[in-house]
Amino acid sequence: MAVVYQSFAHHRNALVEGNIREMSKMYLDIVSEILELGQQEGSMRKDMYVGLVKRFILGAVESTINNWLLSRKEYDLASMAEPLIDLFIRGIGVPGTPPQNKV
């Protein structure tokens, strides 16, 4: 499924474009529901811009699929699910460490 989605998502083909768009919308709707539920139950920050978070997640998933395809499927794609979920939930920062604001 990942190969089909990635192959058609970036190529213009009128026959499949609608299906890919519908798959993407369905995926993003599910992500929205999960984010909103997490915000309601207090397990996710309420100050997040949900649209940006959805794009962040979709971009990370697409990049992971692309890297897997470019590696000629040398590893199990499903093995990347847990690290991605951990990154989404816990982020990359160290809790309690204030930002340095240095660019």
From TrEMBL:
Q: Know the name of this protein?
A: Tetracycline transcriptional regulator YsiA domain-containing protein
InterPro entries for the chain: Tet_transcr_reg_TetR-rel_C_sf (IPR036271), Tscrpt_reg_YsiA_C (IPR013570)
UniProt-listed Pfam families = TetR_C_4 (PF08359)
Domain named Transcription regulator YsiA C-terminal: residues: 1-91
Do you know which SUPFAM superfamilies this protein is assigned to?
A: Tetracyclin repressor-like, C-terminal domain (SSF48498)
Enumerate the transmembrane spans: none
Which domain of life does the UniProt lineage start with?
Answer: Bacteria
